[in-house]
């Protein structure tokens, strides 16, 4: 405290009898400078939250619900060369494009990362992230484990990595069967891949167990992670 600059002659009225305004003004005069209403904590930085996990664990389901309950988040729409599934909408679920269009984006360095997954290309357009972060929005990226590993190399600790996992292999397999999107061949590939993928949990910052019938709790936990990150004294800073 700047003891030397404090005026010694200021009379401070007794707090029991003075009005709030009188006391406030007297205290201001006594400390020798006006009380500032500037925020004491800096504004939190926009975050990049990478949500990943084995196939069929519920990444889309969690993100869909998060989109409904949380504002100020941009959910990155991934570009893909895979065919549209029933009910999917271009520009909302994915940007569906031809292989040639996708290869053009690779050549122009317009993708943050891309990969060939089960025979189809998937990638994250950079410009979308830049535009929304500039508006102060948090960014949620949904990627497979391979994508998360690549993003970790690119973004290091500047992004938050969340691993979504089912409570057990049994639950995961039943969820994949119930979804009715897979052939017996792709089911086998996805299960084998999921076994390998669970081993990557340690490369993530947080793990969220998406228990059967408890989607709401998983979404709440992801929200809590975002809130906790916003409250960090040393914020993550992203440049892409
Ligand atoms: N907590 C949960 N309880 C019950 N069912 C769930 C839960 N979370 C997701 N599901 C269901 O499990 C199925 C798979 O979920 P989803 O498609 O979201 O997985 P995904 O991780 O995005 O899969 P992929 O990587 O293959 O696209 C969906 O039918 C979804 O509705």
Primary descriptors:
240 residues; alpha/beta; five-stranded parallel beta sheet; four-stranded mixed beta sheet; 8 helices; elongated; binds adenosine-5'-triphosphate; Guanylate_kinase_CS; EC 2.7.4.8; guanylate kinase; kinase
What does this structure look like?
The chain has 240 residues and is α/β, with parallel strands linked by helices. The protein has 8 helices and 9 strands. The strands form 2 sheets. The chain has a 5-stranded parallel beta sheet, with helices on both faces. Strands 4-3-6-5 form a 4-stranded mixed beta sheet. It is elongated. The mean pLDDT is 92. The structure holds adenosine-5'-triphosphate. Pfam families: Guanylate_kin. This is guanylate kinase. One of its GO terms (molecular function) is GMP kinase activity.
The count of β-strands is 9
Fraction in beta strands: 15-25%
Helix content: 25-40%
Element order: H for helix, E for strand = HEHEEEHEEHEHEHHEH
> What's the average pLDDT?
92
Number of helices: 8
Q: Poorly predicted ranges (pLDDT <50, ≥5 residues)?
A: none
Terminal residue distance:
42 Å
Structural class: alpha/beta
User: What order do the strands of the largest sheet run in, or round the barrel if closed?
Assistant: 2-7-1-8-9
- Ligand identities: adenosine-5'-triphosphate
Overall geometry comes to elongated
Q: Main beta sheet, described?
A: 5 strands, parallel
As a whole number of angstroms, the C-alpha radius of gyration is 25 Å
